[in-house]
Amino acid sequence: MEAYMKLLREQNPEIAKYLDLMQPMMENKEIEVDAIVETKKVDPELQNQINKLKKINRKLFTIVEGLKVQLELELNQNDDLAKAIGACLECFGENSECSECFGTGKPGVAIPDFILFNKYINPAIQKYNKHYFNKN
Ligand SMILES: [Zn+2]
């Protein structure tokens, strides 16, 4: 996950900015607003705005956490599918600049994983053959 976040940062500076802003929340650190609020009397309207922003931040944090979980699941599923067809896990052989295969990792370049092939590919082949060659 950390490697993927790093890749995201490198590929998209705009996302990197957001991730930097989210980092304190992701580490469960309260931004220093609390310290300011406790030591000084704050305008009630400003306090209200702070509370609203904190609420929004908590919602965003929850969304980010959910997206991280979903991303992790989908990355694992993507890896399984690549293994099922014997392709590069990073790019399926579609990226000539891939650090793992330089675009040579197309499906079938490696021996497909037996279990994953039977889980993902075999049912699709059966359906494909039935649909295109065995119409009744
Ligand atoms: Zn690759």
Describe this structure in words.
With 136 residues, this protein is an all-alpha fold. It has one domain. The protein contains 5 helices and no strands. It has helices spanning 2-11, 13-26, 33-39, 44-85, 114-133. It is elongated, with a radius of gyration of 24 Å. The termini are far apart. The site of zinc ion has 9 residues, from loops.
List each distinct ligand once.
Answer: zinc ion
Count of discrete structural domains: 1
Number of strands: 0
Pairing-aware structural class of the strands and helices?
mainly alpha
> What is the overall pLDDT average?
86
Radius of gyration: 24 Å
- Termini Cα gap: 48 Å
Q: Characterize the largest beta sheet: strand count, sense, and whether it forms a barrel.
A: none
H/E element order = HHHHH
Q: Outline, from the CA principal axes?
A: elongated
Helix content: 55-70%
Our count of helices gives 5
Uncertain spans, ≥5 residues at pLDDT below 50?
none
Residue share in β-strands:
under 5%
Key words describing this protein structure:
68% helix; elongated; mainly alpha; 136 residues; binds zinc ion; 5 helices; 0% strand; single chain
Give a brief rundown of this model.
The protein has 136 residues and is an all-alpha fold. Helices cover 68% and strands 0% of the residues. It has one domain (2-133).
What's the arrangement of secondary structure elements?
Layout: H1 2-11, H2 13-26, H3 33-39, H4 44-85, H5 114-133
Residues 88, 90-91, 93, 95, 98, 100-101, 105 line the site of zinc ion.
